[in-house]
Design brief:
By secondary structure, the chain is an all-alpha fold. Helix content is about 90%, strand content about 0%. It contains two helices and no strands.
Amino acid sequence: MNYLLILVIAIPVLFIIGTTYNALKEQKRLEEGPLKEILAQRELEKKLALKNSSNKNNKNTNTKNSPSE
């Protein structure tokens, strides 16, 4: 009976340890692989968006400051 109790307690604990270990391995694999590419692509998109918005702002301020008459 005592062994059964130890087994009932040990199985869920080992399951949690195993799933946590696999999740950490998967996260490390993603950080070293595709995540770097995705973050680099987002950084480029962000720079382009900032550049485009600053160009639009400059055009808008230039048209507001120019005399219309």
